[in-house]
Design goal:
alpha+beta, FAD/NAD(P)-binding domain, D-Amino Acid Oxidase, Chain A, domain 2, 2 domains, eight-stranded mixed beta sheet, 14 helices, about 30% strand, globular, binds flavin-adenine dinucleotide, binds 3,4-dihydroxybenzoic acid, EC 1.14.13.2, FAD binding, 4-hydroxybenzoate 3-monooxygenase
Length: about 400
């Protein structure tokens, strides 16, 4: 087979890129290791920046988002029983949109199907060959049958455990990593959210987050040891622990119910440089991971897609390599800022096993500074709603 852009990975990055390229008449084939049902079954991010919303609009995939998504003008931060609000609208003029990654992915699949876009599921043994030549190709297997795609470019949108990053030779690739000594235990429950805006909670027992998907679907997280597994936590134990970590006035209002999903995610900061090698471009989690505090993972994947899409347009429409040549530098400049914000917000909100009494005092002083300082709140708001592309 032949195409212009071979896209490895049918998660949000790969699908969004394919759909945007389609709007410009640029052909692609998406290769996905799992089934569509598996991809749609993963519960992940829930907060979208305006930049991602605009890209979805450009891709013609924002209709349901505009109907069903919720604009949030601020968020709450609590420590012990104290709580304050950071006002996004006042400080930036921009809200964020609460709309699940699952829904975004579903909308993108629907659009790809409507457009007759080619997606191969259940692919195995994906190998990228000749990425440093003018004629790259991707080989893979489906049902034991070997296949090959000859293409102009390869977009590596295959997440943290994909093959694309590993294709870049070790003497070219530089990786930066910080692994956090805890995870997030998350549950989804068909209960009304405890508050109409998100609550990020710092407590002596560890971090908690009260989030949501809609009026009757809540998403809650608590910091937990990495050695825990979801089976260690009954629903009752989860709710009890969550209540201990949020202000009493909030805990009193919490409506509990059975969980319909329960999972643990480890926390990691990770960046690989460069994000381009020859005709291979890394996008999203394939190139970088943020700890989830601040909801930057999906949004940072989207800004990569923006830069790559525009670079490829420049190539096909204007016969210019300027956009693809500057892709890595442009994407990384924004990635590092999202990494900084996610690292800062994680450091502010979690309990660390090796935290000294002095470290704890510093954390508390920083939260109180944020509470009382408009400039600090503006800085947080600007980062939370998303830095400009
Ligand atoms: P992915 O969503 O990982 O998609 C990559 C796709 O590539 C997958 O479908 C995978 O099956 C496929 N693939 C992998 N290898 C191959 C291969 N060899 N061949 C073909 N296909 C392959 N972010 C937030 O902002 N908030 C959150 O609450 C949050 N929670 C998360 C929880 C978990 C458990 C994880 C893992 C991530 C979470 N994130 C969260 C991060 C966010 O979901 C990601 O940043 C986002 O999914 C990135 O999209 P992506 O398309 O780049 O990668
Ligand atoms: C959600 C996840 C996050 O990491 C975050 O910062 C906010 C919301 C969520 O899944 O709803």
């Amino acid at each position: 087979m032949k195409t212009q852009v071979a896209i490895i990975g049918g998660g949000p990055s790969g699908l969004l890129l394919a759909q945007l390229l389609y709007t410009r008449g640029i052909e692609s084939i998406v290769l996905e290791r799992k089934t569509k049902e598996y991809v749609l079954g993963r519960i992940r991010a829930g907060v979208l920046e305006q930049g991602l919303v605009s890209l979805l609009e450009e891709a013609g995939c924002a209709e349901r988002l505009h109907r069903e998504g919720f604009a949030h003008d601020g968020t709450l931060v609590s420590y012990g029983d104290e709580m304050f609000r950071v006002d996004f609208r006042k400080h930036t003029g921009t809200p964020v949109i609460v709309y699940g990654q699952t829904e975004v992915t579903q909308d993108l699949y629907a659009a790809r199907e409507k457009a007759g876009g080619q997606i191969e599921f259940n692919v195995e043994n994906v190998v990228i060959e000749g990425a440093d030549s003018d004629a790259p190709r991707v080989t893979y297997k489906v049902d034991g049958e070997a296949r090959q795609i000859d293409c102009d470019f390869v977009a590596g949108c295959d997440g943290f455990h994909g093959v694309s990053r590993q294709t870049i030779p070790l003497d070219v690739r530089r990786e930066y990593e910080k692994v956090y000594p805890f995870g997030w235990l998350g549950i989804l429950s068909e209960t009304p959210p405890v508050n109409h805006e998100l609550i990020y909670a710092n407590s002596p027992r560890g971090f908690a987050l009260c989030s949501m998907r809609n009026e009757n679907l809540s998403r809650y997280y608590i910091q937990c040891p990495l050695s825990d597994s979801p089976e260690d936590w009954t629903d009752a134990a989860f709710w009890d622990e969550l209540k201990r970590r949020i202000p009493a006035e909030v805990a009193d209002k919490l409506v509990t119910g059975p969980s319909i999903e329960k999972s643990i995610a480890p926390l990691r900061s990770f960046v690989t440089e460069p994000m381009r090698w020859g005709r291979l471009f890394l996008c999203g989690d394939a190139a970088h991971i943020v700890p989830p505090t601040g909801a930057k993972g999906l949004n940072t994947a989207a800004s990569d897609v923006h830069y790559l899409y525009n670079g490829l347009r420049d190539f096909y429409e204007n016969d210019s390599t300027a956009g693809i040549d500057s892709y890595s530098a442009k994407a990384l400049a924004r990635v590092w800022k999202a990494e900084r914000f996610s690292w800062w917000f994680s450091s502010l909100m979690h309990t660390y096993p090796d935290q000294s009494p002095f470290d704890l005092k510093m954390q508390q002083a920083e939260i109180e500074f944020l509470r009382g300082n408009e400039a600090a709140q503006k800085s947080m708001a600007e980062n939370y709603v998303g830095l400009p592309y």
